Amino acid sequence: MIKVGIKKEGNYPVDSKKIKDFLEDFFSREGIVSDAEVSVAVVGRKKMLEIGKRYLDDKNLHEVLSFVSSEEDLKFVYPPDGVVHLGEIIVCYPLIVEAAKKEGKLIDQKAIELVKHGAQHLLGIHHQ
After folding, report:
1. What is the rounded distance in angstroms from the CA atom of residue 73 to the CA atom of residue 38?
2. How far apart are CA 99 and CA 122, in angstroms?
């Protein structure tokens, strides 16, 4: 079973259930059959800038970032609790809104696109 945790920095109106359902389906289709968990954080501009600067030494504002929690010298580390900790996906809500308006999409639709992008990175799929 895939467990999806969602944390919102503010009272951002994204549909957590849609994101959870999407990620559960996405990881299942990608072959994740073990017990696994992934976290999603919805943050504002200031927090996203802080995360980029702290962890990437980057001053750019990103729409989405992802961090793999079980990576060690690019070798798989079997988790002692038997749960595969896939990592964390962080999306910037104000940038979701801006991109959705620009692309003529619903906010939840754009949020899921960015969450998918982050999930692909967690699985090692990079900018095809």
Report:
1. 20
2. 22
The SS3 of residue 24 is helix
Topology annotation, domain 2-122: Collagenase (Catalytic Domain) (3.40.390)
DSSP of 29-83: HTT--S-EEEEEEEE-HHHHHHHHHHHH---SPPSEEEE-SSEETTEE---TTS-
Q: At 26, list the tokens.
A: 């996405």
Question: Each residue of 10-58: pLDDT tens digit?
Answer: 889 999 999 999 999 999 999 887 888 899 999 999 999 999 998 888 8
Per-domain boundaries in the chain:
2-122
Model pTM score: 0.86
Contact 86, 121 (CB under 8 A): no
Q: For residues 96 and 118, what is the distance between their CA atoms, to the nearest angstrom?
A: 13
Give the distance from CA 38 to its chain's centroid.
8
